[in-house]
Amino acid sequence: MALQLGTLRDALLEAGATPEKANEASEEVAGYDSRLTRLTTMVQAAIALLVVPIGSQAAVWIKMGEISGQLSALSARLH
Question: Would you say 29 and 35 are in contact if contact means Cβ atoms under 8 Å apart?
C-alpha cells in the first residue's frame, strides 16, 4: 500500500466517497505532501549555503570599516 493520509481518507469516506476513491485521493495528496517536504528541505539547504558567504562578506566589510577608521585616525595624527 502506498503512503496515505489516514485522516483525509477517513474524512473522504465519511463524506461518501468510495473506499477506492478515498484511497486514491489520500495517496495522491500524500505524494504531494512528500514532494513539498523534499522541496522545502532543499530550499532551506540552499538558504543555509547562501547565509555563510553573505555572513563572511559582512564580517569582511565590518573589518574593512574598522581598518579604514584606524587609518583615518593615524593619518589625522600624522598631519
Answer: no
Closest CA to 33 of 4, 72, 66: 4
For 28-44, what is each residue's pLDDT tens digit?
998 898 899 999 999 99
In the chain, where the domains are located: 6-78
Q: How many CB atoms lie within 10 A of CB 40?
A: 10
DSSP 55-77: HHHHHHHHHHHHHHHHHHHHHHH
Give the three-state DSSP class for 3.
coil
Question: Cα–Cα–Cα angle for 17, 22, 28, nearest 5°?
Answer: 140
pTM: 0.51
